[in-house]
Amino acid sequence: MGMILTAILVLLALALIFGAILGYAAIRFKVDGDPIVDQINALLPQTQCGQCGHPGCKPYAQGIANGGEPINKCPPGGESTIQALADLLDVEVLPLDAEHGEEKARTVAYIREAECIGCTKCIQACPVDAILGAAKQMHTVIIDECTGCDLCVEPCPVDCIDMVPLPTTPQNWKWDYPLSGETLIATDAQRGAA
Amino acid sequence: MQAAPIKIWDIPGGIHPAEHKHESTQRGLEVMPLPARLVLPLQQHIGARSEPVVAVGDQVLKGQLLAEATGLVSCPLHAPTSGIVTAIGPAPFPHASGLEEWAITLDSDGEDKWTDLEPIADYQSLEPATLLDMIRLAGISGMGGAGFPTSAKLKARPEQKIFTLIINGTECEPYITADDTAMRYKAAEIVAGIEILMHILHPADVLIGIEDNKPEAIAAMRAAVGDRAMRVIEFPTKYPSGGEKQLIQILTGKEVPSGGLPADIGMVCQNIGTLLAVHDAVLLGQPLIKRITTLTGDALTRPTNVEALIGTPIRDLLQFAGLQPDKLYRLVMGGPMMGFTLQSLDAPILKTSNCLLAGSIEELPPPPVAQPCIRCGLCSEACPASLLPQQLHWFALGKEHDQLKRLNLFDCIECGCCSYVCPSSIPLVQYYRASKAEIRALDLQTHKADHSKQRFEHRQARLQRETEQKEMDRKVRAEKAARIKAAKEAAQPSETETSAEATTDVTRIEAHKPTGLTPEQKQLKIAAATAQMALKKAQKQIAANPDNVDLQAQVPELEQACEQAQRTFDEAMGEVSVKAPAPPSAAGADDAKRLKIEAAMARASLKKAERAAGDSPTEEQEKEIYALREQVAVADARLPKDEAPRKPLDESLKKAKLDAAMAKAALKKAERAQSENGEDAALQEEIERCRAQLSDALGVLEQAEAKASQLETSQQRAEKKPVDETTLQLKTDMATAKASFKEAERAVQEARENNADTGPAETELANSREVLDKAAKAFAAHMASKETN
């Protein structure tokens, strides 16, 4: 009986000691914020467009991290974002959920300035302050800051905002990958060239 | 300085393609005739696009500034000839994409007239910074290939001393002979350019590297250098020894670190063409407007080297060299290894265009179809940067960007050796270029996403801040309003509490109210009520203190007063009072109280009259005031002796103070009148009288004060009771009502003054009177009930 009591007391003491250590460690090495949310957020395109159904990129990141949201709800990010998220979270790559939109070429908002009435509604809607203007003054979009989220299109009372694809210039032009003709054998060269 | 044996190092890999250099070196250096139209793209260099400073239609002179640099890494642009600016906008551009680029189009006027130049012969006297500025303003960018602004390159690492200046006369790529020609025919100018750079950089060593396939150039350079502190180094021909990093390795044995610049190891490498431009800029004062370009290829009948103006259309150049359009299969800008195919002959040559290769189909056949990689490893052997081209190829196919970066894809100089040696004809370089472009684009995208995130977060923070600020402002305003309200409330009750006048003031105001009673009636009523109250009080005191003879003697007096007041009131009301007269056993204390109240009332009305009269009293007002003063004096005179035995001393003290103050005021007034009206006997007399009064009053005050201090401790303040809640509340109500009444009065007054409709104001006044009346009644009733209790 005495031995059992001793054992229980010893175990209790150990439990208390380790509990204290763990409790201390939890305070001493506390991590501020949620690192996984930040990591996911870093992979998202930060358009803050809300197409995923969340009010911004960070809430979607939180949804993925905590709420088990699927990783395929971000049309602006497209395949590459899904791929990156899959790599980070070690989950299956999913095709983009068409319900939330399709992956489109990057666009920027363009205000047809002659039609702008200066209502400032688009300025309030822009999540990144990319629209410049004042009440009753013409507004314009700072193209370099625009993320192409198209949140400004809907509030415009005169529908003078277009989403236009960015033009290709010598500065942003990219070399293409070579056509993959390398599965052909030498005697098929004529066919490949034709 | 060919004495010391010079150690030559080797680079890994490299190839020996057919040179094809002799075709274009046979005709020496020709000068291209002035073209009719020049196209000057605004982006001829690495960095920010330059900004036009001319407008369409402007007449410009040769060498005049057309566009200025827009940042540290940018380059200005000058007019290569005199003429008229005919267009600024997108124009054909020599680029692998075939896309257009913004350009200034200049129509030559044929005069080729220079603008004013400022050549500097004695550049040694100038600061290096001044010379760097001259180089920058002359629009010089690297003329060998990439086109990095030269001044920025020379000061890329300001903290790092440059020990070795390397002059790149290698020109290792097949077909190109522009630098070769420059060295052959312009060696003296090149050496002068080197000396300018030496003056800027003060290097310990100057190495001029030339491949051994250019003996004429080597000879010319050696002759030009003479015994200057420069070394012309000849080394075996091998492609790509002309790459900056490769040349440094060949001449010094040192390697530029991955991702670094030659300046990191204390070296700077400059191209022959750049040195010519530096010479022109400093010694001739000419900006960079021309260059030597090789025109070669099977499709040209007379391949040659020309000194052409920047912006000369390629079509003009090729026609000058005898273009055979039917033989032209592919036009390449640059060499066959690293150049790119042009899609249009309309594009101009740039500051970086060292060669135009107009190849026939035999010369530049279409690339054979690529076959699968057999992992032979020839590419790795050929790579001058010691990379693993075949691994890079696989990862590029799989778009594994992390792996590509890990394998130092960005150290690839895209020399094309791996593609050249590939037995499967895999276009390896094209994979690397595409992968690099994609990685850069993704990096840019990530960067942009970070930037957007930051902006978004800042915006959120700003909105948050604004909301908080608004909330705080609202709170502050609410607090302020509450404070003001509290202060008002606190001020008014205390007023009514401390001064007897205030209460009587209220009754006085009430007296003015036409709420069924005339003011006189009202006053009488109140007087009656007060008399009754005093009587009751006296009776109570007698009950408590039966053997106080004084008190008992006063009671009948009080009774009488009370009765009289009631009667006068009843008379005023026009009806015979049926109310019971005051009890017969009234006590004298009440009389004192009544007197006191009368005195207070008199004082209050005096005050009011004075206030109404202001600084410029009318005669009538003065009379009134005088009468009131009399009253006050009478009341006061009666007061002390009646009160003295039982009244708390502070009352008499207060009165004395008041008298003194009044006397002072009267004196002041008299004095003021005198100063206004000049000497006047009557006024003087008045002043004297006032002074006497004042001194009397002060004497009384002193006495009273002395008494007060004597008796303070033994004083029994039977009358003073703590003010209970209800009293306070009622007083507050009354004060508020009084305030609103006063306001209404003011409003009526204003309306009258402005000849406006006084109706609403008067209604308001009547209302507030009613309210005030009620409040006063309630207060009086409360006080009465308190007294009886």
TrEMBL record, chain A:
Gene coding for it: rsxB
Family: Belongs to the 4Fe4S bacterial-type ferredoxin family. RnfB subfamily.
Cofactor note: Binds 3 [4Fe-4S] clusters.
Gene3D superfamilies associated with the record: 3.30.70.20, Electron transport complex subunit B, putative Fe-S cluster
Lineage of origin: Bacteria, Pseudomonadati, Pseudomonadota, Gammaproteobacteria, Pseudomonadales
Assembly description: The complex is composed of six subunits: RnfA, RnfB, RnfC, RnfD, RnfE and RnfG.
Subcellular localization: Cell inner membrane
EC number, UniProt record: 7.-.-.-
Identification of the protein by name: Ion-translocating oxidoreductase complex subunit B
PANTHER family noted in UniProt: ION-TRANSLOCATING OXIDOREDUCTASE COMPLEX SUBUNIT B, OXIDOREDUCTASE
InterPro entries to which the protein is assigned, alphabetical: 4Fe-4S_dom, 4Fe4S_Fe-S-bd, 4Fe4S_Fe_S_CS, Elect_transpt_cplx_RnfB/RsxB, RnfB/RsxB_Proteobac, RnfB_subfamily
Organism, scientific name: Halopseudomonas xinjiangensis
The organism's place on the tree of life at top rank: Bacteria
4Fe-4S domain residues: 32-91
Known function: Part of a membrane-bound complex that couples electron transfer with translocation of ions across the membrane.
Entry GO terms, CC: plasma membrane
Keyword Cell inner membrane in annotation: yes
Binding-site positions, [4Fe-4S] cluster 2: 116, 119, 122, 156
PROSITE patterns in the cross-refs: 4FE4S (PS51656), 4FE4S_FER_1 (PS00198), 4FE4S_FER_2 (PS51379)
Annotated region (Hydrophobic), positions in chain: 1-26
Main subcellular location of this protein, as a coarse class: membrane
Keywords: 4Fe-4S, Cell inner membrane, Cell membrane, Electron transport, Iron, Iron-sulfur, Membrane, Metal-binding, Repeat, Translocase, Transport
GO biological process, one term: electron transport chain
Domain annotation 4Fe-4S ferredoxin-type: ranges: 107-136, 137-166
Pfam family, one: Fer4_21
Protein residues bound to [4Fe-4S] cluster 1: 49, 52, 57, 74
Binding, [4Fe-4S] cluster 3: 126, 146, 149, 152
UniProtKB/TrEMBL annotation, chain B:
Protein name: Ion-translocating oxidoreductase complex subunit C
GO MF terms held by the record: 4 iron, 4 sulfur cluster binding; electron transfer activity; metal ion binding
The encoding gene: rsxC
Requisite cofactors: [4Fe-4S] cluster
Assembly mode: The complex is composed of six subunits: RnfA, RnfB, RnfC, RnfD, RnfE and RnfG.
Superkingdom in the source lineage: Bacteria
Main location: membrane
Compositionally biased spans, kind Low complexity: 489-504
Binding site for [4Fe-4S] cluster 1: 373, 376, 379, 422
List of residues binding [4Fe-4S] cluster 2: 383, 412, 415, 418
One GO-annotated biological process of the protein: electron transport chain
Single GO cellular component term: plasma membrane
Coiled-coil stretches: 521-612
Keyword Nucleus: no
Naturally occurring in which organism (per UniProt): Halopseudomonas xinjiangensis
